[in-house]
Amino acid sequence: MFYKDERLALFIDGSNLYAAAKALGFDIDYKLLRQEFERRGKLLRAFYYTALLENDDYSPIRPLVDWLHYNGFTMVTKPAKEYTDSQGRRKVKGNMDIELTVDAMELAPRVDHIVLFSGDGDFRPLVESLQRQGVRVSVVSTIRSQPPMIADELRRQADNFIELDALREVIGRPPRETRFEREEATASNG
Global pTM? Predict the structure, then answer.
């Protein structure tokens, strides 16, 4: 469903894509992801959206954010909000839906095809609006996890649904071993 001469933009809901890939048991190689969509059309922009805990000295996502920024992704971040829920559990809130939606609407007149990496049903009205503007929309997520990571209404609204698991061989890398697993392997081989 891609044409070589169409102008493409990628919109990656970072936490949603991470959760979908994790549910399928693989890590995404973002360099390969970018190359795959550069092959499919004229890639104008690749946006990545994530919330960051600003008060932490070290955020586990910071190296990825820095790498993506250095390697041609347009990074859109905002501070995550920390709060304590009614049961006294520490929670983090960092929804990037509005930022992604505004950017997609602004870019719509300059692209032919938008690829949305998210299964969040809240994006259905965005997809519908982009389609009314003549933009084709592909959604990348998964129905192969339990429960499925894509909202049915989003999948049905999209022009094209791309199963994330089907991209595993093209954009995936095996999950990294933990230090414990490495030490176990070394001990059993030694």
Answer: 0.87
Calculate the CA dihedral of residues 59, 12, 96, 104 and round it to 10 degrees: 150
Query: Dihedral sign, CA of 108, 161, 155, 24?
Result: negative
Quick: pLDDT tens for 68-93: 999 999 999 988 887 888 888 877 77
Residue found by looking up tokens 């809901």 in the block: 13
- CA dist., res. 78 & res. 6, Å (int): 31
